[in-house]
Amino acid sequence: MDRWPDHKAWFLVLPVAVLVAFSAIIPLMTVVNYSLQDVLGGTYFFVGAEWFEQLLHSDALHGALQRQFIFSFTVLAIEMPLGVAIALALPRRGWQVSLCLVLVALPLLIPWNVVGTIWQIFGRSDIGLGGWTLNELGIAYNYTSNSVDAWLTIVVMEVWHWTPLVVLLAYAGLQAIPDAYYQAAKIDGASAWAVFRYIQLPKMRGVLTIALLLRFMDSFMIYTEPFVVTGGGPGNSTTFLSQYLTRLAVGQFDLGPAAAFSIIYFLIILVFCYVFYRALEGIGKGAP
Amino acid sequence: MTLTLTNVTKTVAGETHLADVSTELHPGGFYILLGPTLAGKTSLMRLMAGLDRPTEGQIEMDGRDVTRVPVRKRNVAMVYQQFINYPSFTVYDNIASPLRRSGMRAEQVDTKVREAAETLKMSHLLDRLPGELSGGQQQRTALARAMVKDSEVLLLDEPLVNLDYKLREELRVELREIFARRSAIVVYATTEPEEALIMGGNTLVLHQGRVLQQGPTTDVFRHPASMQVGRSFSDPPMNYAAGDVRQDGNGNREAVLAGGIRLPLLGHLARLAPGRYHFGARASHLSVKRNREDDLSFKAAVTLSEISGSETFVHVDFGEDHDWVCQEEGVHRFELGQQIDVFVNPRDVYAFDTDGWLVASPVRDKTRQAAQ
């Protein structure tokens, strides 16, 4: 008996395939294409891995990458404990809960460039409430000329903007702990620290890992807020990866290097995604 | 150590959780708190543990007033419906945690932990984390942690309710044996009358924050002091119908129930004086077939028939909104609305006065039991 494989089923996959091709594969391949060529007056030259080599030896990239890591880790080191602390301090029941949650979540509702603008104005030493007050108190503060001040501003802004997310996640984790755990701890005579260390923290492990992932990814790709506040300056002191990329692509119109950089950036994020994905997978097994 | 509660009342935000509860629990005793959800079982346990303070009343341990003594200064242990263990500790560390906190030497802790694990058949699981255990094993861990403490009061708040049927039966039998050997006061809350009967000991029937009746479990079951106890301590609840005891000119008395059912006053019912009563019969004493010569029968319409395991629960209606449930061994099929004969032996019928208090309960006759 003849048996012809039935290929009709491929038609069912076609819409998805077309969608993915246009939305992901073709744009991505365009970037790959650019990253391997040089464009001169409408003529394309194949340059191989030249852009990549150039970038990997570029001090500007190294600087941006280093600043990016320092920034992300600083921000995480502040936001995670602070978020957990705020979540612990929030009321657990009653009408105050919704009020507190809304107040805490407020910064999350503000568009990113508005957040930047708010802090840009707030920090100005001539008319900004924050900057002016600091200077009046005798603390020389100017984020446009002093790179430490610029860093401080960006970090504080980021913490202000995103700690609420950690708070919300940690709070959700806390609320999910049955009351019986606290009773049991009381009967055992456990101290407040023991309750935190052996009940609350392990029970929050899942949500805190998710918070860590989200916050790392977001802070690693930060663009809008520093762009609005400092524009990457003074000098290059607050130029993070995204700023650098934009300068390369839009400012200098170096499409080849910019494309190569995009791919490297993408790969870095991909690696971290994978690491975190594995970490997340492990959570389900450890804690109940 | 004896735990005494005197006129204990607990109100929270104007809502009465417990009303005027008095009881005395003795060491080595096994006490069941039986009642539906919101009856006050957990509230009562929290007071016994010292997690809450009563609004009024007194709690004493061996005559010493402990009403205001906080939980950490009392020697109690508690097991919950949920499986409560330290998530990041192994089973071993979980069981050891109360001992370590009390400052016990490491070798002694080790002996005790292994002993408890042995009793609860989980010696092979000591290295696991709670998250890696099944529900039954998690609850065993919690039980071991509570038992290892050698507390004077052990409170178990529906500990088996979240386990599947098979595990529940298994653990129930084990627990009964384990408790029998202990000198602590064991308090066990449950919503299931059947569980109370299996576990034995003493039962306190709770309803809407009040202790309706207390005493040895079988006594309470056989002689429910009130109609509410009859409802609470039967599953399905006891069936009731109002009726009048009448006497004719010859001095012969009989009861006429709702729906015109004539109930001969046999056995314990013979001494009922003329007047109005509520008559009650347990579902297990109703039948769709004649079992004894002197069974009373009446006609009723089937409103629902449910099969549970190897038993059939037939809901019948015999007019004037009297819905009774009849529990029949075996699997039977009935049509909805079908008219059937329902049988009950007058000797199994309880009588309550118009205020709902028990007047006459079936005598437990050895010879009759044997005849069945």
TrEMBL record, chain A:
<feature type="domain" description="ABC transmembrane type-1">
    <location>
        <begin position="65"/>
        <end position="276"/>
    </location>
</feature>
<keyword id="KW-0472">Membrane</keyword>
<feature type="transmembrane region" description="Helical">
    <location>
        <begin position="97"/>
        <end position="122"/>
    </location>
</feature>
<comment type="similarity">
    <text>Belongs to the binding-protein-dependent transport system permease family.</text>
</comment>
<dbReference type="InterPro" id="IPR000515">
    <property type="entry name" value="MetI-like"/>
</dbReference>
<keyword id="KW-0813">Transport</keyword>
<dbReference type="InterPro" id="IPR035906">
    <property type="entry name" value="MetI-like_sf"/>
</dbReference>
<feature type="transmembrane region" description="Helical">
    <location>
        <begin position="12"/>
        <end position="36"/>
    </location>
</feature>
<feature type="transmembrane region" description="Helical">
    <location>
        <begin position="69"/>
        <end position="90"/>
    </location>
</feature>
<dbReference type="InterPro" id="IPR052730">
    <property type="entry name" value="Sugar_ABC_transporter"/>
</dbReference>
<feature type="transmembrane region" description="Helical">
    <location>
        <begin position="150"/>
        <end position="174"/>
    </location>
</feature>
<keyword id="KW-0812">Transmembrane</keyword>
<feature type="transmembrane region" description="Helical">
    <location>
        <begin position="206"/>
        <end position="224"/>
    </location>
</feature>
<dbReference type="Pfam" id="PF00528">
    <property type="entry name" value="BPD_transp_1"/>
</dbReference>
<protein>
    <submittedName>
        <fullName>ABC transporter permease</fullName>
    </submittedName>
</protein>
<keyword id="KW-1133">Transmembrane helix</keyword>
<feature type="transmembrane region" description="Helical">
    <location>
        <begin position="258"/>
        <end position="277"/>
    </location>
</feature>
From TrEMBL, chain B:
<dbReference type="Pfam" id="PF08402">
    <property type="entry name" value="TOBE_2"/>
</dbReference>
<dbReference type="InterPro" id="IPR013611">
    <property type="entry name" value="Transp-assoc_OB_typ2"/>
</dbReference>
<feature type="domain" description="ABC transporter">
    <location>
        <begin position="3"/>
        <end position="233"/>
    </location>
</feature>
<keyword id="KW-1003">Cell membrane</keyword>
<comment type="similarity">
    <text>Belongs to the ABC transporter superfamily.</text>
</comment>
<dbReference type="InterPro" id="IPR003593">
    <property type="entry name" value="AAA+_ATPase"/>
</dbReference>
<keyword id="KW-0813">Transport</keyword>
<protein>
    <submittedName>
        <fullName>ABC transporter</fullName>
    </submittedName>
</protein>
<keyword id="KW-0547">Nucleotide-binding</keyword>
<dbReference type="InterPro" id="IPR015853">
    <property type="entry name" value="ABC_transpr_FbpC"/>
</dbReference>
<dbReference type="InterPro" id="IPR012340">
    <property type="entry name" value="NA-bd_OB-fold"/>
</dbReference>
<dbReference type="InterPro" id="IPR027417">
    <property type="entry name" value="P-loop_NTPase"/>
</dbReference>
<dbReference type="InterPro" id="IPR003439">
    <property type="entry name" value="ABC_transporter-like_ATP-bd"/>
</dbReference>
<dbReference type="Pfam" id="PF00005">
    <property type="entry name" value="ABC_tran"/>
</dbReference>
<keyword id="KW-0472">Membrane</keyword>
<keyword id="KW-0067">ATP-binding</keyword>
<dbReference type="InterPro" id="IPR047641">
    <property type="entry name" value="ABC_transpr_MalK/UgpC-like"/>
</dbReference>
<dbReference type="InterPro" id="IPR008995">
    <property type="entry name" value="Mo/tungstate-bd_C_term_dom"/>
</dbReference>
<keyword id="KW-1278">Translocase</keyword>
